[in-house]
Amino acid sequence: MLLVAGNVAKAQDGLALAVFAFRPKPVMVQLYQPLVDYLNQAVPEARLRLVVLNQEEMEQELGAQRLDLLFTNPSHFIVLRQRNRLTGALATLVAVEQGVAVSSLGGVIITGTGRDDIARLADLRGKTIAIPGTKFLGGYQTQAFELLQAGIRLPDDASLLNVDGHDGVVQTVAAGKADAGFIRTGILEAMIREGRVSPDSLKVVNPQNPPGFPFQLSTRQYPEWAFSALPHVNERVVRRITSALLALEPDHPAAKAASIHGFTIPADYLPVENLARALRLSPFEHAPDFTFSDIISRYRDVLVVLALAGGVIALLALKLVVNNRRLRQAHQRAEESDEVFRRLYEDAPTPVLIIRDGRFERCNRAALDLAGARADQLIGRSPEEISPPLQPDGRSSRDLAREFLDDVSHYSSARFDWVHVRPDGQEFVVEVSLTPITIGGHRLAYVGWTDITDRKRAEAELQAVNQRLAEQAGQLMRVNADLEQFASVASHDLRQPLRMVASYLGLIRRDIQTQASPELREYLGFALDGAKRMDRLIQDLLDYSRSGRHSDAEAPVDFHQAVQEALQHLQPVIDEQGGEVIVAETLPILSGHRDDVVRLFQNLIGNALKYRTPDRPPRVQVGCQRDGQCWRIWVADNGRGIAEADRERVFKIFQRLVPSSECEGTGIGLAVCKKIVENMGGRIWIDSVPGQGSTFQVSLPVD
Fold this sequence. Notes:
Layout: H1 2-12, E1 16-20, H2 25-42, E2 49-53, H3 55-63, E3 69-72, H4 74-83, E4 89-97, E5 100-102, E6 104-105, E7 107-112, E8 128-131, H5 137-149, E9 159-162, H6 165-174, E10 180-184, H7 187-193, E11 202-205, E12 222-223, E13 226-229, H8 235-247, H9 253-258, E14 260-264, H10 270-279, H11 292-298, H12 300-322, H13 327-347, E15 352-356, E16 359-363, H14 365-371, H15 375-378, H16 397-409, E17 414-421, E18 427-439, E19 442-451, H17 453-511, H18 518-546, E20 555-558, H19 559-577, E21 580-583, E22 589-592, H20 594-610, E23 619-627, E24 630-637, H21 669-679, E25 683-689, E26 693-701
Parallel strand pairs: 1-2, 1-3, 8-9, 8-10, 21-23
Antiparallel strand pairs: 3-13, 4-5, 4-13, 4-14, 6-12, 7-10, 7-11, 15-16, 15-19, 17-18, 18-19, 20-22, 23-24, 24-26, 25-26
Helix pairs in contact: 5-10, 8-17, 12-13, 17-18, 19-20, 20-21
């Protein structure tokens, strides 16, 4: 409640639009204040105010909950989205240069025109490079990624000189204080256009010439800046701001002031995430957890041998330290230990082999027994030479063997099934554990074989038994998948043209507001409301089709926390209606999917607020009770109630008890609730007294 109150107070002071200062702040204010003025004219209730911040300042202000809307570069957007609850990108910037619109950016590597020693990416090794900071996508990260592909890792292979902003980089390189510099696309052209740098003083390293791209470029292209909002901003205001951004024309004074073409629908920022992962940048700077269980599972055979060898070596090392005067005796014991190790290797019951340069170099007796071969029939041959031409998946044994051995050469382990052929022509199947090892400075492949011929035969027999059942179930699954795919694709494909219709209808109504007749304004209002209702209907249909489909496994869900999260989304409606929601101090923790449980409570409490009686403020109670092997959770209200004849019908899709003119809605919310509850193995029903209120009951099994 305190957070909501703070957000309400902040909304009364207007919304803070934070813009990342990639150039000096006075320049940024000059560029983007006209855009803020344009948005305030288009959306007066927003009362936007421009806040120009560097990345550290923006993150501090976000932590203090003093920002409402953000406009920053893609890499910073990925970091903020990971650390904060954002709505996602509302729109993507479209830049303009020489009359050409472009919605992507990249990095530029500059150096002095007289630096003949710097012509390729490889020439930057060991050089001093001026950068505006490592958090800049176009000013550092895109160039660092290109250099990484060329075998140059920053900051290890070059000296980085941090300067103040992109403009400072250009000035530093032009003054000869750095060998090269990193800036984002468009900066060099802007400074030449402003007369702040001579076009003959600098050149671009590794120039790229993508068709239709108007800027000088040294790297790949990535999506332009993202415009996003915090979740607490009123959804209607967010939609209107988004509509105004998409409607900004290139010849508008605000677009001209910022030297942009306008904005377009949100771009795909996955390439920026992939870049950050490759460079181990925030928020992907931490390596994945690798537990002791992972080591045991992956390197079990190696650990057995290494543990024995390590014990022997540790014993020898201790003897050498304590008994340094008995060096000869210790050396003799070491030779004896080596013999023990060799015997252990030779006599181990698990087949073990060593591959050097793509061929078997050594193997123990168990490997020869499994292969049914003599040593001269195995040693010196490559894996594909004792394999059929094709593996069961249809791929060439030769190509697959080279692929796996190439991974080992790059220190990657592998575990896979493989079919070999004995000298007598009989095939046998092994599970191969392939591990890279280095001995005497030479990179080898440690190979462990596990005979799974009988298991594969049993699996094939089991597969044949199950095939008939799979064929019978397959048709039903395909039909169900086709229906779900149709709902999802249709919903996605229909929303975009509807948003376009709604956006342009809003623009038409604004442009002819003073000229149109009352009937025409009314008709346009009907059309715009219809488009918005259709958009909500499609979104609700998409939510319904997605309900119950999850890629992750169920996990314990704290229902009390889920209710609180639902109330955060509903707080503006509660405040608007003067309502009261009372939640029991203790609610159960049950297995499920957190997003589904939040959606369940958001729909049930939202319905209770929506279908209130006009003569009293809404009052909603959330409680629970243990009933044997089930938990019964209820959401009770003091609304208009539901007749007994309608209590089953309201859970069917598109069924509504009141006209849309009286209460907004699509008739899908309760259908979604029913689907969520049934997917959790429960049931939902209604107890109601018309005119006094309704109680929605949910019964869910105890874990």
